[in-house]
Amino acid sequence: MEKTRRLGMLLMFIFLVLASVVASKGEDDFSYCESMVRKWAESSAGNRIKADKLTLKDFLFFLHVPRTGGRTYYSCFLKKLYDNTDECPRSYDKLRFDPRETNCRLLATHDDYSLMSKLPKDKTSMITILRNPIDRVFSTYEFSVEVAARFLVHPNLTSATQMTKKMKSRSRGVSTLDIWPWKYLVPWMREDLFARRDARKHTEVRSIKGKQNPYDMHELVMPLHTFVDDPMAHEIIHNGATFQLAGLTNNSFLAEAPKIRHCVRRHPNLGHYVLEVAKGRLDHMLYIGLTEDHKESATIFANMVGSQVLSQSEALSSLGEEETSNKTGKKF
Known about the structure:
Elements: H1 2-45, E1 59-63, H2 70-81, E2 106-109, E3 124-130, H3 133-149, H4 157-170, H5 182-202, H6 224-229, H7 231-236, H8 240-246, H9 257-266, H10 271-283, E4 287-290, H11 294-328
Parallel strand pairs: 1-2, 1-3, 3-4
Helix pairs in contact: 1-9, 1-10, 3-5, 8-10
């Protein structure tokens, strides 16, 4: 009986010691994370683009948040403000050009704010478009399904994957599968679609006629609630626009971005640092459009910078003519 009592006391002691160690480690982990995130936030506060009284600078960086209508905004509006020669090479995944060597003035990309480390900050203006986050999640889900479903013409996933590799090796253009975040979301959804199609071959599928909820067709496609709850969505979609503005996506140029994201996921209350950085960067942007008011957003921005774009273009044109004249007018 005495031995049993002593053993019980020993086990209780061990339990308390282990609990203390775990608690200590948890506290140490939080302290480490808080220190790192706060240090990043403080350094980011002094690393913003400053909007100089709504003056358009030499270089315009359009930070394209996915599923905000940015492609339409860029193709039908921004490109019309600039000449074709002013457009920078495509950069929808990783920076594909050196801004110090490339003669361009307009860049649109899904790369996050960390791209500013590659650009001439004192000569760069930034704009973006924001959208209701719930609508953006729905749109992200729908687009992922749409693009992934195109591969169902193949007999199996292996065939689809091999064909994709062949096409990418032959093409010089930018594929959807090269672009963040679709390079992660589309293959994930594609694999799920093929798995569900294969499962239907071996099980009796009830008729889907009369079903009212297109976001819960689990026999055919990953349901929306499964999509949203998956770690992949938590990594890329949840608070995606905020992390993109903060420069902390899993496509970031910032070396410590993975550690900061990990800390914020582990300790959600540290997210307020990320939010404040993102809000601060919005405050310092030249202009912010809204997907829900596309036409009005474009009109306001055009009225604000249209004359400046024309003035810059005329100045560059005059400079080019002067340089040509100096080269051809030399006397010997």
